[in-house]
Amino acid sequence: MLQHGxxxxxxxxxxxAVRHKHEPVYIAVLNYLFYHDVAGATVTRGAAGFGADHHLxxxxxxxxxxxxxxxxEFIETKEKADEILPKLLEIVEDxxxxxxxxxxxxxxxxxxxxxAAALTGKAKLMRIYMGEQDKWNDKRLYDAVLESLRAHDMAxxxxxxxxxxxxxxxxxxxxRRMSLSHDLPIMIAVVDQEARxxxxxxxxxxxxxxxxxxxxxxxxxxxxxxxxxxxPKGMQR
Length: 237
Fold this sequence. Notes:
Number of domains: 2
Structural class: alpha+beta
CATH architecture of the largest domain: 2-Layer Sandwich
Distance between the termini: 47 Å
Mean pLDDT: 80
Shape: globular
Largest sheet: 4 strands, antiparallel
Number of helices: 4
Helix content: 10-25%
CATH class of the largest domain: Alpha Beta
Strand content: 35-45%
Radius of gyration: 21 Å
Oligomer: single chain
Number of strands: 16
Protein backbone atom coordinates (compact mmCIF):
# COMPACT_ATOMS: atom_id res chain seq x y z
CA MET A 1 0.00 0.00 0.00
CA LEU A 2 1.29 3.46 -0.90
CA GLN A 3 2.14 5.77 1.96
CA HIS A 4 3.25 9.37 2.36
CA GLY A 5 6.79 10.05 1.22
CA UNK A 6 9.10 9.37 -1.73
CA UNK A 7 7.81 7.22 -4.60
CA UNK A 8 8.18 6.69 -8.35
CA UNK A 9 5.85 7.69 -11.17
CA UNK A 10 6.18 5.48 -14.23
CA UNK A 11 4.79 6.73 -17.55
CA UNK A 12 4.57 4.52 -20.63
CA UNK A 13 3.84 5.86 -24.11
CA UNK A 14 2.76 3.43 -26.83
CA UNK A 15 0.70 3.41 -29.99
CA UNK A 16 -2.88 2.21 -29.64
CA ALA A 17 -2.40 -0.33 -32.44
CA VAL A 18 0.93 -1.73 -31.20
CA ARG A 19 0.47 -5.31 -30.03
CA HIS A 20 2.11 -7.77 -27.64
CA LYS A 21 1.23 -11.46 -27.94
CA HIS A 22 -1.80 -10.71 -30.13
CA GLU A 23 -3.32 -8.02 -27.87
CA PRO A 24 -2.78 -4.24 -27.59
CA VAL A 25 0.33 -3.39 -25.59
CA TYR A 26 -1.58 -1.07 -23.28
CA ILE A 27 -3.96 -3.92 -22.36
CA ALA A 28 -1.03 -6.27 -21.74
CA VAL A 29 0.63 -3.65 -19.52
CA LEU A 30 -2.57 -2.94 -17.60
CA ASN A 31 -3.19 -6.67 -16.98
CA TYR A 32 0.40 -7.13 -15.84
CA LEU A 33 0.16 -4.21 -13.39
CA PHE A 34 -3.25 -5.33 -12.10
CA TYR A 35 -2.25 -8.92 -11.39
CA HIS A 36 1.11 -7.94 -9.88
CA ASP A 37 -0.56 -5.83 -7.20
CA VAL A 38 0.38 -2.35 -8.40
CA ALA A 39 -1.53 0.26 -6.40
CA GLY A 40 -3.32 1.73 -9.41
CA ALA A 41 -2.88 2.70 -13.06
CA THR A 42 -4.53 5.02 -15.56
CA VAL A 43 -4.72 4.72 -19.35
CA THR A 44 -5.44 7.80 -21.45
CA ARG A 45 -5.87 8.03 -25.22
CA GLY A 46 -4.52 10.99 -27.14
CA ALA A 47 -6.33 12.84 -29.90
CA ALA A 48 -3.18 13.32 -31.98
CA GLY A 49 0.55 12.78 -31.83
CA PHE A 50 3.67 11.30 -33.40
CA GLY A 51 6.49 9.10 -32.18
CA ALA A 52 9.92 7.81 -33.18
CA ASP A 53 8.76 7.08 -36.74
CA HIS A 54 7.74 10.76 -37.07
CA HIS A 55 4.39 9.70 -38.54
CA LEU A 56 1.59 12.03 -37.46
CA UNK A 57 -1.54 10.31 -36.13
CA UNK A 58 -4.73 12.31 -35.70
CA UNK A 59 -8.26 11.27 -34.76
CA UNK A 60 -10.90 11.90 -37.40
CA UNK A 61 -14.58 11.12 -37.22
CA UNK A 62 -14.51 8.88 -40.29
CA UNK A 63 -11.45 6.87 -39.19
CA UNK A 64 -11.74 4.15 -36.56
CA UNK A 65 -8.53 2.16 -37.15
CA UNK A 66 -5.73 4.44 -35.98
CA UNK A 67 -2.50 4.17 -34.06
CA UNK A 68 -3.23 7.07 -31.73
CA UNK A 69 -0.93 7.68 -28.76
CA UNK A 70 -1.82 5.94 -25.50
CA UNK A 71 -0.32 6.84 -22.11
CA UNK A 72 -0.24 4.51 -19.09
CA GLU A 73 0.69 6.02 -15.73
CA PHE A 74 1.12 4.48 -12.31
CA ILE A 75 2.74 5.41 -9.00
CA GLU A 76 4.52 2.91 -6.79
CA THR A 77 7.29 2.54 -4.27
CA LYS A 78 10.84 2.45 -5.61
CA GLU A 79 11.15 -1.20 -4.61
CA LYS A 80 7.98 -2.22 -6.46
CA ALA A 81 8.89 -0.18 -9.54
CA ASP A 82 12.34 -1.80 -9.67
CA GLU A 83 10.73 -5.24 -9.33
CA ILE A 84 8.29 -4.94 -12.22
CA LEU A 85 10.30 -2.72 -14.59
CA PRO A 86 12.25 -5.51 -16.39
CA LYS A 87 9.05 -7.28 -17.48
CA LEU A 88 7.43 -3.98 -18.49
CA LEU A 89 10.38 -3.23 -20.77
CA GLU A 90 9.89 -6.65 -22.40
CA ILE A 91 6.21 -5.90 -23.05
CA VAL A 92 6.83 -2.35 -24.31
CA GLU A 93 9.21 -3.13 -27.18
CA ASP A 94 8.01 -0.23 -29.34
CA UNK A 95 7.36 2.77 -27.11
CA UNK A 96 8.75 5.07 -24.44
CA UNK A 97 9.05 4.44 -20.70
CA UNK A 98 10.05 7.15 -18.25
CA UNK A 99 10.37 7.27 -14.46
CA UNK A 100 10.22 10.33 -12.22
CA UNK A 101 10.87 10.82 -8.53
CA UNK A 102 7.78 12.15 -6.76
CA UNK A 103 6.53 12.73 -3.25
CA UNK A 104 3.17 11.35 -2.14
CA UNK A 105 1.36 13.87 0.07
CA UNK A 106 -1.91 11.94 0.29
CA UNK A 107 -2.42 8.23 -0.38
CA UNK A 108 -5.90 6.80 -0.83
CA UNK A 109 -6.76 3.56 0.91
CA UNK A 110 -7.91 0.45 -0.87
CA UNK A 111 -9.06 -3.01 0.04
CA UNK A 112 -6.58 -5.82 0.61
CA UNK A 113 -4.72 -6.65 -2.60
CA UNK A 114 -4.94 -9.82 -4.54
CA UNK A 115 -1.80 -10.24 -3.55
CA ALA A 116 7.56 -18.86 -20.34
CA ALA A 117 10.44 -20.51 -19.64
CA ALA A 118 11.43 -23.61 -21.67
CA LEU A 119 9.11 -26.46 -20.75
CA THR A 120 10.29 -30.01 -21.26
CA GLY A 121 10.33 -33.23 -19.26
CA LYS A 122 8.63 -33.51 -15.89
CA ALA A 123 5.95 -30.90 -15.19
CA LYS A 124 2.63 -30.39 -13.43
CA LEU A 125 -0.89 -30.29 -14.81
CA MET A 126 -3.22 -28.07 -12.78
CA ARG A 127 -6.96 -28.42 -13.31
CA ILE A 128 -9.16 -25.64 -11.95
CA TYR A 129 -12.92 -26.29 -11.71
CA MET A 130 -15.53 -23.58 -11.23
CA GLY A 131 -19.01 -22.53 -12.34
CA GLU A 132 -19.63 -20.56 -15.52
CA GLN A 133 -21.46 -17.84 -13.58
CA ASP A 134 -18.80 -17.44 -10.86
CA LYS A 135 -17.54 -13.86 -10.61
CA TRP A 136 -14.43 -12.11 -9.36
CA ASN A 137 -14.32 -8.32 -9.13
CA ASP A 138 -17.40 -8.03 -11.38
CA LYS A 139 -15.95 -10.10 -14.22
CA ARG A 140 -16.33 -13.75 -15.11
CA LEU A 141 -14.03 -15.75 -12.86
CA TYR A 142 -12.64 -17.94 -15.62
CA ASP A 143 -11.74 -14.85 -17.66
CA ALA A 144 -10.02 -13.29 -14.63
CA VAL A 145 -8.10 -16.50 -13.86
CA LEU A 146 -6.99 -16.81 -17.49
CA GLU A 147 -5.76 -13.20 -17.52
CA SER A 148 -4.00 -13.78 -14.20
CA LEU A 149 -2.26 -16.92 -15.50
CA ARG A 150 -1.05 -15.00 -18.53
CA ALA A 151 0.12 -12.06 -16.44
CA HIS A 152 2.15 -14.53 -14.33
CA ASP A 153 3.80 -15.93 -17.50
CA MET A 154 2.39 -19.43 -17.25
CA ALA A 155 3.40 -21.60 -20.19
CA UNK A 156 -0.22 -22.00 -21.36
CA UNK A 157 -3.80 -22.59 -20.29
CA UNK A 158 -7.01 -23.84 -21.89
CA UNK A 159 -10.60 -23.19 -20.76
CA UNK A 160 -13.09 -26.04 -21.23
CA UNK A 161 -16.85 -25.56 -20.98
CA UNK A 162 -18.78 -28.62 -19.81
CA UNK A 163 -22.22 -29.68 -21.00
CA UNK A 164 -23.27 -31.07 -17.61
CA UNK A 165 -21.84 -31.84 -14.20
CA UNK A 166 -22.13 -31.34 -10.45
CA UNK A 167 -19.87 -30.14 -7.67
CA UNK A 168 -19.67 -29.97 -3.88
CA UNK A 169 -23.35 -28.97 -3.57
CA UNK A 170 -24.40 -32.14 -5.52
CA UNK A 171 -26.64 -30.04 -7.77
CA UNK A 172 -26.57 -31.18 -11.40
CA UNK A 173 -26.06 -28.40 -13.97
CA UNK A 174 -27.07 -29.31 -17.50
CA UNK A 175 -27.01 -27.42 -20.79
CA ARG A 176 -30.48 -26.69 -22.15
CA ARG A 177 -31.13 -25.54 -25.69
CA MET A 178 -33.69 -22.90 -24.70
CA SER A 179 -31.82 -21.59 -21.67
CA LEU A 180 -29.31 -18.77 -21.82
CA SER A 181 -28.84 -18.43 -18.06
CA HIS A 182 -27.16 -21.56 -16.75
CA ASP A 183 -24.19 -22.31 -14.53
CA LEU A 184 -22.36 -24.97 -16.49
CA PRO A 185 -19.06 -26.39 -15.25
CA ILE A 186 -15.83 -24.73 -16.38
CA MET A 187 -12.39 -26.35 -16.23
CA ILE A 188 -9.10 -24.55 -16.84
CA ALA A 189 -6.12 -26.79 -17.59
CA VAL A 190 -2.63 -25.38 -16.99
CA VAL A 191 0.71 -27.09 -17.64
CA ASP A 192 3.97 -25.65 -16.32
CA GLN A 193 6.93 -26.38 -14.10
CA GLU A 194 5.97 -27.43 -10.57
CA ALA A 195 7.75 -24.49 -8.94
CA ARG A 196 5.80 -22.00 -11.07
CA UNK A 197 2.50 -23.74 -10.35
CA UNK A 198 3.19 -23.77 -6.60
CA UNK A 199 4.16 -20.10 -6.67
CA UNK A 200 0.87 -19.21 -8.36
CA UNK A 201 -1.40 -21.20 -6.00
CA UNK A 202 -1.76 -18.43 -3.32
CA UNK A 203 -2.99 -16.02 -6.03
CA UNK A 204 -5.51 -18.58 -7.26
CA UNK A 205 -6.69 -19.34 -3.73
CA UNK A 206 -7.62 -15.70 -3.18
CA UNK A 207 -9.54 -15.54 -6.46
CA UNK A 208 -11.36 -18.87 -6.25
CA UNK A 209 -14.37 -19.09 -3.94
CA UNK A 210 -16.28 -22.30 -4.62
CA UNK A 211 -14.35 -24.69 -6.79
CA UNK A 212 -11.71 -27.39 -6.97
CA UNK A 213 -8.01 -27.34 -7.83
CA UNK A 214 -6.16 -30.58 -8.60
CA UNK A 215 -2.52 -31.23 -9.53
CA UNK A 216 -1.06 -34.22 -11.35
CA UNK A 217 2.30 -35.19 -12.82
CA UNK A 218 2.81 -34.99 -16.58
CA UNK A 219 5.65 -35.48 -19.06
CA UNK A 220 5.97 -32.65 -21.57
CA UNK A 221 6.85 -34.15 -24.96
CA UNK A 222 6.75 -30.96 -27.03
CA UNK A 223 6.11 -27.29 -26.27
CA UNK A 224 6.44 -24.79 -29.10
CA UNK A 225 4.50 -22.26 -31.14
CA UNK A 226 4.61 -20.96 -34.67
CA UNK A 227 5.94 -17.52 -35.52
CA UNK A 228 4.09 -15.19 -37.88
CA UNK A 229 5.90 -16.68 -40.89
CA UNK A 230 4.79 -20.19 -39.91
CA UNK A 231 8.22 -21.31 -38.64
CA PRO A 232 8.17 -23.13 -35.27
CA LYS A 233 9.92 -21.15 -32.54
CA GLY A 234 13.44 -22.39 -32.04
CA MET A 235 13.88 -23.29 -35.73
CA GLN A 236 14.34 -19.81 -37.17
CA ARG A 237 17.77 -19.18 -38.71
